[in-house]
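wait is this the right file?? whatever heres the structure
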């Protein structure tokens, strides 16, 4: 078995050309240099095997029990073999903020040949530390215009949505172009709650029934608005594809620590 665990996703939107995106999530990279970083690295070496077992994903100790930074490097090398319209990084790429980890993250991002979108995960909170690697230095909401489609990175690393994010999406939808969302925490609605509640506890998702008012409005907006098409998330360390309305899909990319990567074709 090789290191890479690729999941192919195809989205049909009747576009003039094909758009190729990649998604990487939850690599929990640490630069081992002190007690805390060495401890974190060891913790994830065990945890990745645990998650792979629980979610019945491919795990081969001969290829997967390598350092977190080696995992991220292998994913970057894999992405760089071909060109893509965008690489989405959906959070928890590093395990916690430290100058060493942040520097490692910046060095890694610089290796991508493709354009990338970095969205913070709960392990990267507070997200204002990541301004310099965010589009327009605003980690809260980041817009990538790919021509026929918009990709919007929304920071939900505090397990909620904010008013500026809702305002931004409402305004963007005036343009009438398909919108793809990238965020860390998955959202559960009446359509996918059964799957998530059976497989994960409430640490792993934002529940439409148990959230603040702005978050509830945000979820309602993305469910009802016709331009919002698909959501890509991470956080669960398990791959899934569910429906969050009767026609819109929510995909969760598993952890980069076991080589998980989503290849997304939008056409
Ligand atoms: Fe996370």
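ok assuming it is, sequence goes like this
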């Amino acid at each position: 078995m090789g290191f890479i665990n690729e999941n192919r996703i195809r989205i049909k939107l009747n576009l003039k050309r094909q758009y190729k995106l990649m998604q990487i999530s939850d690599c929990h990279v640490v630069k081992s240099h002190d007690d805390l970083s060495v401890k974190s690295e060891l913790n994830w070496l065990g945890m990745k095997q645990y998650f792979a077992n629980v979610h019945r994903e491919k795990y081969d100790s001969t290829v997967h029990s390598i350092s977190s930074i080696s995992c991220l490097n292998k994913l970057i090398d894999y992405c760089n073999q071909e060109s893509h319209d965008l690489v989405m990084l959906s959070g928890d790429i590093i395990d916690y903020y430290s100058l060493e980890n942040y520097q490692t993250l910046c060095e890694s991002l610089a290796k991508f040949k493709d354009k990338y979108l970095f969205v913070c995960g709960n392990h990267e909170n507070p997200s204002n530390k990541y301004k310099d690697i965010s589009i327009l230095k605003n980690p809260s909401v980041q817009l990538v215009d790919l021509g026929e489609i918009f990709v919007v990175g929304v920071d939900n690393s505090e397990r909620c949505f904010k008013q500026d994010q809702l305002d931004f999406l409402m305004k963007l939808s005036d343009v009438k172009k398909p919108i793809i969302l990238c965020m860390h925490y998955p959202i559960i609605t009446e359509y996918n709650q059964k799957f998530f509640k059976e497989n994960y506890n409430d640490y792993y998702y934002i529940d439409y029934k148990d959230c603040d008012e702005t978050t509830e409005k945000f979820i309602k907006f993305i469910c009802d608005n016709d331009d919002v098409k698909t959501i890509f998330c991470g956080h669960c360390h398990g791959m899934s594809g569910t429906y969050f309305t009767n026609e819109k899909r929510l995909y969760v990319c598993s952890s980069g620590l076991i080589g998980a990567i989503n290849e997304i074709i939008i056409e």
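The helical segments are 35-54, 61-64, 68-80, 99-111, 163-172, 193-199, 213-224. so i think its the right one actually
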